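Dear U.,

For the methods section draft, I wanted the exact inputs and outputs in one place so we can describe them consistently. I've listed the two proteins in the order they'll appear in the manuscript figures. Please don't edit the token lines directly; just add comments below if something needs changing.

First protein:
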Amino acid sequence: MAAIKQGLEQKLQQKLSPLQIQTIKLIEMPVQALEQHVREVLNDNPVIDDDAPKRDDEPRDVSISEVEEKEQSGGSLEENYGPQDDDIPSYNLHVNNWGKDERPEYNTFSVKQSFTQSLLEQLGYRNLTDHQRTVASFIIGSLDDDGYLRRDIESVVDDLAFRAGIESSAEEVETMLKVIQEFEPSGVGARDLRECLLIQLEDKKRTPSVDNAIRVLTEQFEAFKNRHFQKIMARLHLSEDEMKAVLDEIRRLNPSPGGQIDDSYNDQAQQVVPDFRLDYENGQLILSMPRFSIPELRINRKYSEIMETGRLSDSRADKEAATFVKQKIDSAKWFIEALLQRQNTLQSTMQAIIDYQHDYFIDGDESNLRPMVLKDIAEITGFDISTISRVVNSKWIETHFGIFPLKYFFSEGLENSEGEEVSTREIKKALREMVDGEDKHNPLTDDELVDGLAARGYKVARRTIAKYRAQLDIPKARLRREL
């Protein structure tokens, strides 16, 4: 039988403090989510008051520093209300990151009318029964973001019955779908690409080229999808000029009609609120964070009086009430300290990115983007790579040449023929230029793109070309061929 041994073992283990955990969570938030979170925190803390007095004769709230000054004459907060673990610096805070309105208008970009709202509005103009309108509304709610109905009719009928408690039939759903397919943008409510394009062609003024395009999509869609134009011309007896006119008609159509309108009910997903602003003035790059500033916390007059009473009273109830207020004040101070650390971390990280990519930020020329990875900025700022990753995620910057996600400025590097490291973004730009300038009757193969980039001084393998093509949404040479 093995002997049982007992001994002591010492381990060094690092644990995150509550302040560090809170700071990490705040760093991950984009500015719009942060502003909402600040408001929620202040609303949940009864001690903090961010409302200004309505009249000049109303008693005003008290700043934290004023409370602490009063404490000096009768002992510290710690002595009066119990020991505290840490001494956090106080900040005279008042919520000044919002305007006079209760809810500020966001400086958002690319926010349009809701896709669903637009369709429901058009549905309202149709002369339908309440039952038909309910069925049509359900179908609209079943559309994908790009405007397609990718579910079969029977599934919609079943969903109407089981999820909405509405009895319908395949014929009624089909009829209501036809109504929706008459809405704008043209092509909405289609069940596949072929139907989407045909709906748009049927809405156009009938011309020989439109009629031929309808024939091509109706009778030769598979051949068209695979760009077998010669086969189509032979089967439908079309001349080369007629086939070119067909291609011109189809190119003008929109394969994703729902993509024209953003579903902006989801603020987080659709609204872009830049966390940073970069101005170029008198040859200098000036970084600012105009959307958010550290708020000033003020203690509600009623709670400051509770603290004063607890400081002077011998009553246990008064002491307990004052302790409660003190805990709420400390909680607010922790939160403000985390906000301050967040702002300093974001500012330092963004400034490091600007310094690293200085030439690019002058005019936005992509060829000036240097290869840059998270580790590069981590070494400059002294922050951990995971911290840089949290800063970069979901953050945007408004510059004098456009609005960009911070992820945009990061890319790997490859060596050129002279042994210099160049950004993969620069190589992708060269690849795009070659494809845009190619002979569309005889597009460049991946091997020819490799040779072309080599002639420009970029050493890139064929598999890398295929990867970059996919990232740039450039199809294979066969699918780029035009008549």
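Second protein (the one for the lower panel):
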Amino acid sequence: MSTSQSRRQWLKSSLLFSAGAAAFPASAWAADSPEFSYPEAPEVWMPEREAAAVTIRLNANENPYGPSDKARLAIVDALKLGNRYPWLHTPELVSMIAKKEGLKEENILLGAGSSELLAKAGFAFGMAAGAQVISANPTFMSLMRYAQVAGAKWVPVELTAKYAHDFDAMEAAMKGENNLMYICNPNNPTGTLTPANDIEAFCKRVSKHAPIFCDEAYNEFLDEPKKHSMVHLINEGYPVMVAKTFSKIHGMAGLRIGYLMGRKEEIEKVAAFDGRGMTLAATSVKAAIASYQDEEFVKECLAKNAAVRKHVCQGLENMGIEYIPSYTNFMMFKIPMSTQAFIGEMQSHGVGIRGWEMKGGPWCRVSMGTMDEMDGFLAALKKVV
């Protein structure tokens, strides 16, 4: 039996995954697999220096305004539930999500952030013989990394000149029977938006041959989020999964809660790796319930983010720096030196950012912080460039 086959069998049977696949980083599995290597992602990050050097953290697309006051009160109230497992409280959140999204409760799976659900989907679909995961490049790499650990091949497809998904090339990349399509829209790290009509047409056509995972972590930052979501395809019977998270617009990145939506068949396949909600905390569930209903907080975050993003765009234009127009709480711009050197220089001024090698050159991704934080960012940028 080959190493990859034995690894897949072990992953299928291991009780470790009852506690949640996301708890085990991909690096933990690499040592016993000689043929394993990470997908070649163009991302550059230097977290080892962050704690000591960074006072303005703009490298993780976090919402600087959350959690909402209502969510914080819910967390305090939930502390008395700390002696109980959280599954008694998850049905309320599942019911709320199902009602808002127009789905049945069987179409919802909660996870410790969407990252856990990406990991479980990567394993669930990556274990099949000859499996490959097809995605844009660059994009958010979590699902592909876990799928590769499970034995799948990652097939990267370059974004178009307008930084949208190249669906013709993605479809052409399919081989064999076990393909999974990954679409992140708006895309991370570019912050760009592929038109909803293009995604819908692609999903309807290609999902007949390969399930599709739509990562909509930043969907709520759009002016008309429902218009750009693919959730409606689930009720129409297409094998499309949609992941959302409370980490971004709800400002709950440190509380770790998200959800996956899909047909019963796909949800059950991913849920085979689920630990009955054991990766969730009662405080996170209660905070999510409160925040999900706090529409005023979401509107306030959207307004502040839009104002800050406009301010940063103006600052970049004043410095003559090329940037990619963004629909999210982060944006990318060209830099005049290597990404590693640039990250180091910005960290020396107390600012944490991320870098990518993309389209033949170095780029920076900066998250939108508060207005004061972005003024600090722009001041540091002037010194570095």
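Candidate sentences for the figure legend, describing the second protein: The mean pLDDT is 89. The chain has two domains: 43-66+296-384, 69-292.

Thanks,
Y.
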